[in-house]
Amino acid sequence: MTDPEDQARLARLQEIREGMEALRIEALAERGGKTFTTDETLEFIRRHDDAADTVERYALQGREPNDDA
Question: pTM for the whole thing?
Answer without folding.
Answer: 0.40
